[in-house]
């Protein structure tokens, strides 16, 4: 009887009771919704690619995170970290990778909290990561000093190790160093430089300096000088000479700067005549004084011929008194005797 009574009480006016329950539930949900606010933040994507592949094309930089929580809660982008992990991929291809969202502990402790992310996956185009090597070439600018030339340029080490997407590593086979200025060089010089790195998708071996050696040599040329003549010295006063030889022509080989200063005047050679004691023809060697870096290639004559002649000594003759002078003397003496 007791059970029937309770059942009757429950089912009595059941329509009204259901309506009241629905109204109460609606009021409760409305109240809760008034306490909850929807917020949106943009979170940058952190890419993890420590496995066997590299991105071939850039991916979208960020995702949107939608949060429903208490009105009093302020949400910041720093409360989230969006991660796209490529570590488990090992082959070239296009993949849809889920975006992993990490929420800060402080935000996770808040209730109520509803979080959604958009998009949930990111399309990636990846290539297999490989290692390779490339040659290193020095990059230069300017000119060495006049009279010099660059005999050679070397770099140590000559090869750099690189890692990156397969298609890039296989096509990149040479890299240049930082620019080296050759202006003003007249001797060998060493430079410590780094690499130019134009491709940001490649990983280079640990940053290091490259030793570039520039070898500079003087320019070697040939030059012909004409009109070379001797300078005669120490000729005894009672002799005179006459050259029987023609001016010498000579060809030289040596550094440009040396040759530019060479002419017939600078190459004039001395002939010592202090030993001359009699008439005759004499020969003297043509002796040209040259720097150690200049070679005599050819010369028109190796001796200089001269004719030596003793000077004639002219003795003035004594003159006799003239007849007129004698007559004048006699007349003078006669006139003198007559006056007495």
Properties at a glance:
5-stranded mixed sheet; 6 helices; 340 residues; alpha+beta; 6-stranded mixed sheet; disordered C terminus; 19% helix; 22 strands
Low-confidence stretches: 329-340
Q: What is the C-alpha radius of gyration, as a whole number of Å?
A: 56 Å
- Which percent band covers the strand fraction? over 45%
- Helix and strand content put the structural class at alpha+beta
Helix content: 10-25%
Write down the overall mean pLDDT: 83
DSSP strand count: 22
Number of helical stretches of at least 4 residues: 6
Main pleated sheet: 6 strands, mixed
Shape: rod-shaped
Taken in chain order, the helices and strands follow as HHEEEEEEHEEEEHEEEEEEEEHEEEEH
Give the CA-CA distance, first to last residue.
Answer: 226 Å
Molecular structure report:
- With about 350 residues, the protein is of the alpha+beta class.
- The protein has 6 helices and 22 strands.
- The strands form 6 sheets. Strands 2, 5, 8, 10, 11 and 13 form a 6-stranded mixed sheet that branches. Strands 6-4-1-3-7 form a 5-stranded mixed sheet. It has a 3-stranded antiparallel sheet with strand order 9-14-12, with no helix packed on it.
- It starts with a helix and ends with a helix.
- The relative contact order is 0.09.
Write the layout of secondary structure elements.
Layout: H1 2-11, H2 14-35, E1 36-48, E2 53-55, E3 62-70, E4 80-85, E5 93-98, E6 100-103, H3 105-108, E7 113-118, E8 121-141, E9 148-156, E10 159-165, H4 166-171, E11 174-181, E12 189-193, E13 203-204, E14 210-218, E15 220-228, E16 230-233, E17 239-243, E18 248-255, H5 256-260, E19 269-272, E20 280-285, E21 295-299, E22 303-310, H6 323-339
């Amino acid at each position: 009887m007791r059970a029937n009574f309770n059942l009757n009480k429950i089912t009595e006016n059941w329509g009204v009771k259901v309506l009241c329950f629905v109204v109460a539930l609606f009021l409760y949900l409305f109240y809760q919704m008034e306490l909850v606010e929807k917020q949106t933040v943009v979170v940058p994507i952190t890419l993890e690619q420590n496995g066997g592949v590299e991105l071939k094309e850039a991916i979208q930089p960020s995702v949107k995170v939608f949060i429903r929580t208490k009105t009093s809660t302020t949400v910041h982008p720093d409360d989230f970290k969006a991660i796209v992990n490529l570590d488990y991929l090992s082959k070239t291809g296009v993949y849809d990778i889920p975006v992993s969202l990490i929420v800060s502990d402080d935000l996770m402790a808040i209730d109520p909290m509803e979080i959604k992310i958009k998009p949930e996956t990111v399309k990636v185009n990846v290539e297999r990561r490989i290692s390779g090597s490339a040659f290193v070439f020095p990059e230069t600018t300017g000119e060495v000093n006049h009279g010099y030339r660059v005999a050679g340029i070397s770099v140590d080490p000559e090869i750099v190790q690189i890692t990156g997407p397969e298609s890039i590593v296989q096509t990149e086979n040479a890299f240049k160093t930082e620019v080296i200025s050759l202006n003003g060089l007249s001797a060998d010089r060493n430079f410590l430089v780094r690499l130019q790195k134009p491709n940001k998708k490649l990983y280079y071996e640990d940053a290091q300096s490259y030793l570039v050696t520039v070898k500079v040599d003087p320019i070697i040329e040939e030059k012909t000088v004409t009109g070379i003549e001797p300078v005669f010295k120490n000729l005894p006063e009672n002799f005179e000479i006459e050259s029987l030889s023609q001016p010498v022509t000579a060809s030289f080989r040596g550094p440009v700067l040396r040759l530019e200063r060479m002419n017939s005047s600078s190459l004039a050679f001395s002939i010592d005549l202090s030993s001359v004691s009699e008439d005759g023809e004499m020969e003297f060697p043509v002796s040209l004084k040259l720097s150690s870096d200049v070679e005599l290639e050819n010369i028109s004559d190796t001796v200089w011929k001269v004719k030596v002649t003793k000077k004639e000594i002219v003795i003035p003759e004594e003159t006799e008194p003239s007849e007129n002078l004698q007559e004048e003397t006699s007349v003078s003496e006669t006139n003198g005797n007559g006056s007495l």
